[in-house]
Design brief:
The protein has 258 residues and is of the alpha/beta class. It has one domain: Rossmann fold (3-Layer(aba) Sandwich), CATH 3.40.50.720. 41% of the residues lie in helices and 16% in strands. The protein contains seven helices and seven strands; from the N terminus they run E-H-E-H-E-H-E-H-E-H-E-H-H-E. Helix 5 links the parallel strand 5 (143-148) and strand 6. Helix 1 (14-25) packs parallel to helix 2 (41-53), helix 1 crosses helix 7 and helix 4 runs parallel beside helix 5. The chain is globular and about 55 Å long.
Length: 258
């Protein structure tokens, strides 16, 4: 039978890891892109083993996702692994690598840091989508998701560049949704609630964000990566073909409470 692979950008932790495992459990083989140093590679190997225990294939690439040459080499290898009728049916953009600095004052953000943050956390979605479409690797019924956050709408100390990236990412999703609709491919941003992930813990004052979310969320707890992964799997089903161009909150109602 033809297989619909899932390609996860940022597959080794947080939302990407949880989504890779959930999609594997739903029967999707997984291509994972991540950038890890030696100290965290044992965890990556465990993620791969978990995916394979679900009975599907897994191939991970430890590369810089915004390096064009490495991206093309990885896609060459992915393409060589696809069988007759296989495609990459799901793309998740969950890259969390940016500079957390204020715009003004001592240690202010530099132009290079702003450019890097936007390139990794927003523009790379367009790069990978263009590459998949130009290679005919994603066909009718494809699903593209990008992880955004409420920081796209709010001011958080030292979060300015990431906030700009999240706002740009949501805009990219709308534009791609319009352009890919004739191909039967949907594009949506998933806005998770405050989630205790490695990326969150890099934000200055993350303890305050966690405490406020726990107090405010009407569901009585923080969002988990598994909450978001479950929503992504549901939105990957054929019945959701008319859901596109949206920013979808997956937060237990956190965002509707002032």
């Amino acid at each position: 039978m033809a297989k619909r692979w899932a390609l996860i950008l940022g597959a080794s932790s947080g939302f990407g890891e949880a989504s890779a495992k959930a999609l594997a459990a739903a029967g999707h083989p997984i291509f994972g892109v991540h950038m890890d140093r030696r100290a965290t590679l044992p965890h990556v190997e465990e993620v791969v083993r978990d995916i394979e225990r679900a009975g599907v294939q897994a191939k991970f690439f430890n590369i810089n996702a915004v390096d064009e040459e490495k991206r093309e080499a990885a896609l060459d290898e992915m393409q060589s692994m696809l069988g007759d009728g296989d495609d990459i049916g799901i793309l998740l953009h969950s890259l969390a690598f940016g500079t957390l600095r204020p715009y003004i004052g001592e240690g202010a953000l530099t132009p290079a840091q702003m450019d890097m943050t936007l390139r990794v956390m927003a523009h790379s979605l367009v790069d990978w989508t263009q590459a998949l479409i130009s290679r005919n690797l994603m066909g009718h019924g494809g699903r593209i998701f990008a992880m955004t956050s409420s920081g796209s709408l709010r001011v958080i100390p030292s979060y300015g560049a990431v906030s700009a990236a999240k706002a740009a990412l949501e805009s990219h999703c709308r534009q791609l949704a319009a352009e890919l609709a004739p191909l039967g491919i949907t594009v949506n941003a998933l806005r998770g609630g405050v989630t205790d992930t490695p990326a969150l813990r890099k934000i200055p004052g993350h303890e305050n964000l966690i405490e406020a979310a726990q107090r405010r969320n009407p569901s009585g707890r923080l969002t988990t990566p598994e909450d978001v992964a479950a929503a992504l799997v549901a939105l990957s089903r054929p019945e959701t073909r008319w859901v596109t161009g949206n920013v979808i909150n997956v937060d237990g109602g956190e965002d509707i409470v002032g």
